[in-house]
Amino acid sequence: MLSYLTRPGFSRRFVTTFVVLCLATLAAVSGYTVQSGDTLSEIAGKHDVSTSALASANGISDPNRIWVGQVLEIPTGSSSATSNAVYYVVQPGETLGKIAIKFKTSVSAISALNGITNPSVVYAGTRLQISGSNTTATIAPTVSTAKTHTVKAGESLSLIASKYKLRTKDLAASNSLTNPDRIYVGQVLKISGAGGFVCPVPGGKFFNDWGFPRSGGRYHTGNDLFAVRGTPVLAPVAGYVHHLEGAIGGLQFRLEGDDGHRYIGSHLDSFGKSGQVVAGEVIGYIGDSGNAKGSSPHIHFEIALNRTDTVNPYPYLSAACK
Fold first, then answer.
1. What is 147-191's CATH number, 3.40.50.2300, 3.10.350.10, 1.10.150.530, 3.30.70.890?
2. Pairing relation of β-strands 232-234 and 223-226?
3. Which residues contact 147 (CB under 8 A, 6 or more apart)?
């Protein structure tokens, strides 16, 4: 190419400009080869870009469909939600107040950006977002627990489903009704997860470990919920469940929520129900599969806002898992 450009008729200024532009283009992206168990959100978090920006840079219409060996371009200088973000790793002895003063911001602003519900607790080594787009605050949690409804005279299943803002087929499925037209007065129906977010591991132990350091220069993009091996994991919302297996996440579910968000649980011991589910149905069981082998049984739980950018699930969990 350069020999072609140095032929008569091309000015030195043109050639120099062309080479600079080529180098600038090459500098604007870097490559990453997808490994077994990788998710697009994990790769995005590792390289400090949004999942949507990474998907756009690689022409990926479905962020859930990448393959081992695929080479992804990692964009820099993009206009994504995280491209203008400033991050800071907490040092030993620091408080959120001291960090806020250092960056001339407020404790409440940092808390909102990072899903921190108790500003008095911050852990050394945690990566905090100091500035940039506030994605966490856009998904204030709603809490729901399983309820029951006793059928009254004149009620139909569709009427009951409408009352609890559920689809008739989901209400039928959660109650094992093969014929939705056959309900009777006095029948007690289970209304799972009506109206909001259900705790995925009732009784599980967890804390806000979002942003904790991980191997390979990564940072934690979710929360870990610990429980006895084999403890059921519940669908936090209604939606469609896919089951996957990889070297890092082990046995994993990905729930495409009817609310437009994606919910991910990794390191399962075994799978539960797949396909269409209602909130509160069992979709897996606590384990230590993947790169968590030998650790205390738990699931790594993520929420991808609008199925693109991963956000801290702690505000949801702390509100629902009481």
1. 3.10.350.10
2. unpaired
3. 164, 190, 191, 194
Q: How does pLDDT run across 187-241, given as a tens digit for each residue?
A: 998 876 545 688 899 889 998 898 888 877 788 889 999 999 999 999 998 889 9
Token readout for 295 is 């650790």
Which residues, 6+ apart, have CB-to-CB distance to 203 below 8 Å?
227, 231
The CATH number for 198-320, chosen from 1.10.1040.10, 3.40.50.1110, 1.20.120.550, 2.70.70.10, is: 2.70.70.10
Q: If residue 298 lies in a helix (H) or strand (E), which one and from where to where?
A: strand 298-305
**Low-confidence spans in the chain with pLDDT less than 50:** 1-6, 10, 14-29, 77-83, 137-145, 194
Query: What residue ranges in 106-238 does DSSP mark as E strands?
Result: 127-131, 147-150, 188-191, 213-214, 218-219, 223-226, 232-234
- pLDDT, position 4: 41
DSSP string covering 70-93, please?
Answer: PEEEEE-S--STTTT-EEEEPPTT
Assign domain 2-75 one CATH number from 3.40.710.10, 3.40.640.10, 3.10.350.10, 3.30.300.130: 3.10.350.10
What is the pairing mode between strands 239-246 and 275-277?
antiparallel
Share of the chain residues as helix, strand and coil, in percent rounded to the nearest 5: 25, 25, 50
* pLDDT score recorded for residue 82: 45
pTM score of the predicted model:
0.61
Per-domain residue ranges for the chain? 2-75, 86-131, 147-191, 198-320
Terminal-to-terminal C-alpha distance of the chain: 65
> Per-residue pLDDT tens for 265-298?
999 999 999 998 888 889 999 999 998 999 999 9
